[in-house]
Amino acid sequence: MDQNTKKQAVALAALDYIEADTIIGVGTGSTVNFFIDALADIKHKLAGAVSSSVASTARLKALGIDVFELNEVDSLSIYVDGADEVTPHKHMIKGGGAALTQEKIVAAVAKKFVCIVDDTKQVDVLGDFPLPVEVIPMARSYVARELVKLGGDPVWRQGVITDNGNVILDVHNLKILNPREMESTINNIAGVVTNGIFAHRGADVVLVATEQGVETH
Ligand code: 5RP
């Protein structure tokens, strides 16, 4: 089974978590794109969506799904998003698509975070995937020096400007043994908007597409 077939299978499995007539949070990325496409068939059951990126907003609207500003919404029944890495503790690295900040905000509002991945994303320890850190542009060099002090090798993702007008540093060679502590430590560096460790608000359910089918964790 190729990776896209797995992504589609796990995206379809996430439809079971949608409660009728609620507003749902929608993440960003290639796995979520399969989820958004699958929403087309059940869009009459949805009250609408809040999106975590310009790209997902455009895809949702193209299907005729109402997209609300987060500030217009009191609660979200679920948030469905992919991940770059996920551990058995349901901690994640996210931000491969540079949408980490809005993803973290929408996830914070949602009652339930349903993470959809294929089995290539499962790890025991976070950090093989370079950790994305969203940074205010003027702070880029300072933040990079601070990340080196933490043992990482930050690389500026040149040419990428986030939906919030900021830049991304991808931090290589971090072994993230205590994700909650590392999430807080990096977020405390002046100039960091947020980093791609999702440990304080991890997933509630992780759906994993494998050769044998979709597993629920
Ligand atoms: C975007 C993300 C994505 O969820 C993550 O990069 C996984 O993407 P994909 O489903 O394309 O592998 O965090 O910022």
Descriptive notes:
The structure is a single chain. 47% of the residues are buried. It is globular and about 50 Å long. The chain has 2 domains: 137 residues, Rossmann fold; 66 residues, ACT domain (Alpha-Beta Plaits). With 217 residues, the protein is an alpha/beta fold. The structure holds ribulose-5-phosphate. One of its GO terms (cellular component) is cytosol.
What overall form do the CA principal axes indicate?
A: globular
Could you state the order of secondary-structure elements as H and E?
HEHEHEEEEHEEHEEHEEEE
Instruction: Quickly count the helices.
Output: 6
* Widest sheet: strand ordering: 3-2-1-4-7-13-14
The residue-averaged pLDDT reads 97
Q: How large, in whole angstroms, is the Cα Rg? A: 17 Å
CATH topology of the largest domain: Rossmann fold
Percentage of residues assigned to helices:
25-40%
Strand content: 25-35%
